Amino acid sequence: MNTFKPNAKHDTPISKGWPAPAKLNLFLHVNNQRVDGYHELQTLFQFLSESDTLDFKVTHDGTLKLHSELNQVVADNDNLILKAAKSLQAYSQCSLGAEIWLDKILPMGGGLGGGSSDAATTLVALNALWETQLSKQELSKIGLALGADVPVFINGYCAFAEGVGEKLQTVDAKEPWYLVIVPEVHVSTQAVFQHPDLPRNTAKLELSTLLSAPWQNDCQALVCKLYPQVANALTWLVEYAPSRMTGTGACVFGEFEHQNEALNALGKLPDGMKGFVAKGINRSPLERRLSQL
Ligand SMILES: C[C@@](CO)(OP(=O)(O)O)[C@H](O)COP(=O)(O)OP(=O)(O)OC[C@H]1O[C@@H](n2ccc(N)nc2=O)[C@H](O)[C@@H]1O
Ligand SMILES: Nc1ncnc2c1ncn2[C@@H]1O[C@H](COP(=O)(O)OP(=O)(O)O)[C@@H](O)[C@H]1O
User: Fold this and answer.
1) Are residues 156 and 206 in the same domain?
2) Is 114 labelled as part of a ligand binding site?
3) 52, 55, 118, 149: which one is catalytic?
């Protein structure tokens, strides 16, 4: 419905409004460390109603250009959007290029997966616009090389993940409202996984057992010890709702049945804490967008 609307400013068609949603890890278990250093996980991913938005214009000279204020903080060579577009060009031998506009609203490096989601949306959108016709499986293979969380965003459904996040099983979870607190601290995923105090031996369990057991994040205690801002945010939030950390942090989330309860708690956030309210969603808005083409 939003595809290829002529845009006076750019004078050529731009495909607008491709969403790149945030995710939460509703639980995160670290089961094992592989010989290559990576950790085997069991985790449950759910999307949030908060998204970055990307617009794309196909070009015919093979060049890739990103328009974003993010280039003040992330060099083009490191930006997952351009890396994703280059990987798709290489894999599919496509000679087309693209201009890409990013409206970035998701906090970076907080365990909400915004960078991975931007990369997934780029792969899915350009696969459609360049007509490269790769399957979700092929796109996920390309995406996994960019980040462990990219496949779940390509798949587009709330999912239980194993391995390093690539073995996915769709789950129909409840869709509550969340208050997400964004502590002003950067937690390095690599540093958490390399830390000697990280528990790495949670028993692997069947999905049915995991879904009915209390949910936990194995990285949370360590991150709270290393970053008091994360511990403080959780201490405040658990007074209002069952709360946990997402991914390797730093963001924490509290679960509410009704939007107004989450908004009410947001309104009481102490000075110096930032957060937002979003709904948990099982079908990604990217998946919905694709089905409208
Ligand atoms: C653990 C999760 C859960 O969603 O955390 P968040 O990043 O979202 O917080 C993700 O799988 C993270 O995925 P992603 O952020 O893409 O991680 P990558 O860039 O692939 O890896 C960063 C570094 O973390 C370590 N790493 C990452 C994932 C994993 N399963 N085992 C690891 O040991 C590796 O040292 C790697 O070099
Ligand atoms: N398009 C992008 N958006 C966000 N971060 C990006 C992007 N491209 C590269 N990055 C890098 O990826 C890192 C992780 O970003 P993000 O996915 O938001 O966090 P997390 O992995 O903690 O969920 C950022 O700190 C940034 O250096």
Assistant:
1) no
2) yes
3) 149
